[in-house]
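Record 1 of the preview.
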Amino acid sequence: MRTSLALIVAAGLVGGLVLQHQRHVQVRNENTALSAAAAEIERLEAELAREEPAPQVAAEIAQLREQTRELLKLRNEVSRLRRLKADLEAEKREHARLVALQPQEGEKAKPGYEQPIKLEKTAFADQGLLTPEATLQTFLWAMREWDTNRLVHCVVLGQRKAFHERLPRSPREEARKRQLFYTLSVELVARREVSPDTVQIGIIVEWLGDRAPLTFRLEEQEWRLDAARIPLAFQ
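->
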């Protein structure tokens, strides 16, 4: 009887150990399968990242790129239109200023000189910039002597760089300009005070015959020439 009971107990213990071992094996197998599945998922995700996007995604990306290009084009066009608008407004202001300088209907511009003042080539000299007439003589003298530093100094501050860039660079053109101003005479025929710091002088260039107005502006107690409106021969 005791022997049979011992056998039964031993069999139960062995069976429990077997079941526990089987469960451990099952859990280990499940863990191995899960690890393999996780590794496969990571591999697939890496492959997807390397592969081309789906057609729908690719189409959306292409559309976004095209929209970006169009936006850049529009921004450039807006910038260009803004510059054109600023230039147009500047032209309108300048036109209004010139119209305001013109004599009104029925009004005649006052000559400002009792009689024309003729400046012969021998009279061209550096007279300084204390009056518009002195500045004109200094400018003509600097053209004749081709003193570019003095020429630029006769021009209003905001136009000096542009005026200097327009000056002839070649020795041949420089010699032609100097020869021209050795044979030039100028008549001062009209003078108009536009404002306390702006004076216009009408001149007649000997070999042109046409009257050309010159504008002088007072800057830093010196009368300087508005180079934007000088005769082409003076440039």
